[in-house]
């Protein structure tokens, strides 16, 4: 019981993070590999570029996403999942399956 | 790609549901078996009875929790997870583990 009580704030934080609109989907899209901002934006057309910027920044702050600058011509940046992000993404997969079976439109 | 786009609204709905403050924890507590309202309330002391009532009602509406009236003396009711709820609970377990490893207070 004590352990569970102690875990509460961490678990609650995680649920809140995952529950923020679009966060789960951004992680889900990045599971298929690094993406440029424009590719992320195209993958989730209903999400505005302004809100995508905000969500990606939050995910960077949580250490789930990293932005890497690629020394290419022209210089460009790519977003990818950290180890923490990949492990979270692996958990979100089963949620998609659950949604498919149980959630009705 | 088409399939993923179609799945989006369902997945998004699920993430939003799980992300609502306390929802995940209520499901987590019910994974250990049916609980009376007072037991649920005691298990999550930081959650007010008013908000617990609201969240449990939402979970009932989503078919995740059912309230059963027990023909005992005095008559009492118990909350338990449906099959849909149990399957969701099974997914939430790994999120707790992830939180324990990666989320800092």
UniProtKB/TrEMBL annotation, chains A, B:
Keywords: DNA-binding, Transcription, Transcription regulation. GO terms for molecular function: DNA binding. It comes from the Bacteria. Residues 8-105 form the HTH hxlR-type domain. It holds the Pfam family HxlR. The keyword Transcription regulation applies. This is Helix-turn-helix transcriptional regulator. It comes from Rossellomorea marisflavi.
């Amino acid at each position: 019981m004590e352990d569970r009580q102690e875990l509460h704030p961490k678990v609650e934080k995680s649920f809140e993070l995952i529950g923020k609109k679009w966060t789960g989907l951004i992680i889900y899209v990045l599971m298929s590999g690094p993406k440029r901002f424009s590719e992320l934006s195209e993958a989730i057309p209903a999400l505005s570029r302004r809100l995508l910027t905000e969500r990606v920044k939050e995910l960077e702050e949580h250490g789930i996403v990293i932005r890497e600058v690629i020394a290419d011509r022209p210089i460009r940046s790519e977003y990818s999942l950290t180890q923490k992000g990949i492990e979270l993404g692996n958990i979100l997969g089963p949620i998609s399956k659950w949604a498919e079976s149980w959630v009705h439109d």
